[in-house]
User: Which sequence fits this backbone?
């Protein structure tokens, strides 16, 4: 019986962490390590999970917006993809790395 309760608790925690998303989890770790007062306040007030889920959603929207802009500005198109896949992958990965760096510096690690 105790194993079943532990297994359910672990499943609940894993589901909660997964619902936070990538950026939400990174920000939670940042808050724990560098903003312990804010982390404690959000945890004790019961607002931590919604705060992190909202932040993750903002990051995803910002990522999609920036990726569209950069890909359009730099000519990373479906036409390029059909003509030269490796070049398209190289450019798209480069754009994604830059966008991730922007999001991490502007939204996650602040």
Assistant:
């Amino acid at each position: 019986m105790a194993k079943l309760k532990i297994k359910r608790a672990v499943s609940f925690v894993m589901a909660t962490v997964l619902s936070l998303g990538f950026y939400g989890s990174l920000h939670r770790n940042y808050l724990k390590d560098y903003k312990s007062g804010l982390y404690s306040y959000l945890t004790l007030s019961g607002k931590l999970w919604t705060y992190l889920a909202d932040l993750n959603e903002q990051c995803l929207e910002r990522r999609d917006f920036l990726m569209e802009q950069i890909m359009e500005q730099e000519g990373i198109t479906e036409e390029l993809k059909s003509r030269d896949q490796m070049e398209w992958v190289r450019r798209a990965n480069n754009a994604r790395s830059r966008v991730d760096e922007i999001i991490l510096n502007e939204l996650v690690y602040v």
Q: What stands out?
A: Helices lie at 2-34, 36-45, 48-73, 78-83, 85-108. The CA atoms of residues 24 and 55 lie 6 Å apart. The chain has a mean pLDDT of 90. The longest helix spans residues 2-34.
